[in-house]
Specification:
mainly alpha; 434 Repressor (Amino-terminal Domain); 2 domains
Length: 113
Amino acid sequence: MVARMEALVTPSVLQWARESAGLDLADVAKRLKATPDRIRSWEKGVSRPTWGQFSTLAQMYRRPTAIFYLDEPPSEPDTPPDYRTAKPGQGSSEVKFEWRRMHHVRGIALDLP
């Protein structure tokens, strides 16, 4: 029998990645076919996701897997408010991802000679 391989990720980075992607516990739990309590336990460091679950999380959050092994969440520019939503400041996960991508491309362009 194969032992369960846990991803040794940083719990606070898991929570930061979920929140910065604009997803709540119920969304993530539904996609992983898990309970919100299980996701919360990963984010508190009580338990850890399997490698397969972690891989799915990284894809959902649109983050490289290496970022989850940092000691603390990295700093990012604030996402501008999205006034198209019912809750100002929330924004959709797609808008947040595009904002991150645009900011990254801008940084590359500024470094060009």
